[in-house]
Amino acid sequence: MTLTTTLTALVPTGPDLTGYRIGAPQRAGALTVLPIHGPRRPGIVPPRSGLKLHQVVGYGSVELHNGASAGVAIVPLHIGYIQEGAQNHALCSAALLAAGQTRRFPDACCVQAAQGGYLEGRDQWFFVLPWELRAAALRLRGQEGYSKLWEDISALNRDYGLAARGHLEQIISRRRAVLTQFRSRLELLPEQLGALFFVGDEFAGLEIAPDPEYFAELWMPLVCFAYGVAAWRAEPRPAEPEPFAVTDLAGLRTELDRERAEYRERLLTALPSASGARTAEEERYLDLRLHTVTGDGLAGQFVAEHDRLVYASLFADREPLAARSGG
């Protein structure tokens, strides 16, 4: 099944999406993933092996470095870095970095209140902000102030029955063993370069990378943290599956394929339309253009090149946590 029509509806006034296709759904508790395969765009530096946190030059201001000798780096939307004994930060926007470039981001969010120390370029691992925080973080792009996301982080912790503090590590670090189970329960397929994510039957996000290597490095932060946090909270109680009325292995496979196909169609039919959303160009490098999408229940960013999609991170825009909880 092609995804051209489906993705076009999710990427308003967006690029050509010819060639993308969708696979069978995978489910792990409340989290459902529809894998996406499609055309490669070679030469983009992947986020873990090529992109490094250079330093934090002050709370709310971080520097990233593209260490590759060739190739532009697409900084993933809402990437954040964790390091023991230092104050952790996340970015509010994606970005484009040339080979060898070091760039300062003065509008980063501190995601660990009242923790001293600056991150250094060692012993670091990265995550992507949980879905519940992403719309708020995107709205804060360009605004300086290291504590600007603490209220929403506090509300998220309170919703999870944790101390209402601006400490995202209460979930990301201390619940990491639980969250990383999603990585083992869901399979990253060969040549997969994207996915549609659903929590329950609700659309959560669309993630597309330039190539499978890039997506493989982003897979764990997406499935475990960006969408796994909400899925962990919504984890359903185990239910007894209804048996199929078949008597042999061939019949069972047929019924499984039918059930997966029907479930996939049901999810795709319920996808939101972003026909009323707005797009704005944020920056460009050579022929790459970074755009922001807002409005009509959708938010996020995508990168296009000559009217072809290169990268996308779009998600359902939810009401801010702090406002929802009266914070």
Characterise the protein shown here:
Pfam families: ARPP-1 (PF20208). InterPro entries: ARPP-1 (IPR046699). Residues 20-315 form the ARG and Rhodanese-Phosphatase-superfamily-associated domain. This is ARG and Rhodanese-Phosphatase-superfamily-associated domain-containing protein. The chain has helices at residues 4-10, 131-139, 150-159, 169-172, 176-179, 181-185, 212-226, 228-233, 249-269, 321-324; strands at 21-22, 26-28, 31-37, 51-58, 61-66, 73-75, 79-82, 89-90, 95-97, 102-105, 109-110, 125-128, 194-199, 202-208, 278-285, 288-294, 298-305, 308-316. It is α+β, with helices and mostly antiparallel strands and 327 residues long. The chain has one domain. The strands form 4 sheets. Strands 1, 2, 3, 13, 14, 15, 16, 17 and 18 form a 9-stranded antiparallel β-sheet that branches. A hairpin with a 2-residue loop joins strand 15 (278-285) and strand 16 (288-294).
User: What count of helical segments does DSSP give?
Assistant: 10
Q: Can you tell me the residue ranges where pLDDT is under 50 for at least 5 consecutive residues?
A: 116-123
Radius of gyration: 20 Å
Count of spatially separate domains: 1
Organism: Nocardia aurantia
Protein name: ARG and Rhodanese-Phosphatase-superfamily-associated domain-containing protein
Domain ARG and Rhodanese-Phosphatase-superfamily-associated: 20-315
InterPro entries: ARPP-1 (IPR046699)
